[in-house]
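Researcher: We plan to redesign the surface later, but first we want a full-length starting point. Tokens attached.
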């Protein structure tokens, strides 16, 4: 990694720390607990994403964030240093400086044509009943995939929590990517009772 990319990552990490849990930059549910939720599990997920952008991140980079959420937190963070495309059914199609939003349906129809430097997907899989079609669509993109999700042992503690069996199943779907990194979050949600925790996975194009 060059000096420029390393400095850019550090700027993103600093910005993440400053924004996290503030009223001006609302994040997900554990971003505002305990007076700000610094070092919460969701904070770790975003830190994992930034760390694994590799040397793809620069001011000319285009990052596709799938499942951005109603707060659009990650795209809003990334847009300060590169261009970001945000995809979520809760977001209406829009365009602002360095950020565009599209509907999921539009994305699925054009995934194979997406020219992006990386794909990020934070805490999305645990909200899905079926993963294969979604993973198959992501597999069409010729770029690194950086995915985090709530993982735990069987039986699942909540309905769509990913167990090892489910990870096996969606991993088989990937034909154009291979696993380059797997990492477990050192922190968990205070209500998880240790039954689930974020798992981060990075997939590189074959």
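Model: Full-length starting sequence:
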């Amino acid at each position: 990694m060059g000096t420029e990319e390393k400095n850019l990552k550090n700027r993103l990490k600093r910005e993440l720390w400053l924004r996290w849990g503030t009223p001006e930059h609302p994040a997900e549910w554990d971003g505002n607990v305990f007076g700000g939720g610094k070092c919460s599990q969701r904070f770790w997920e975003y830190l994992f994403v930034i760390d694994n952008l590799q040397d793809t991140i620069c001011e000319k980079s285009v990052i596709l964030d799938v499942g951005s959420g109603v707060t659009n937190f990650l795209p809003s963070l990334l847009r300060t240093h590169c261009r970001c495309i945000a995809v979520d059914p809760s977001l209406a199609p829009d365009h602002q400086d360095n950020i565009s939003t599209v509907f999921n349906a539009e994305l699925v129809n054009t995934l194979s044509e997406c020219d992006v430097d990386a794909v990020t997907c934070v805490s999305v899989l645990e909200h899905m009943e079926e993963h294969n079609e979604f993973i198959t669509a992501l597999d069409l993109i010729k770029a690194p995939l950086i995915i985090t999700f709530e993982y735990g042992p069987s039986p699942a503690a909540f309905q769509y929590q990913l167990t090892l069996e489910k990870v096996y199943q969606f991993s088989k779907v990937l034909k154009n990517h291979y696993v380059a990194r797997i990492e477990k979050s050192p922190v968990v949600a205070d209500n998880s009772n240790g039954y689930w925790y974020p798992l981060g996975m990075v997939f590189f194009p074959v």
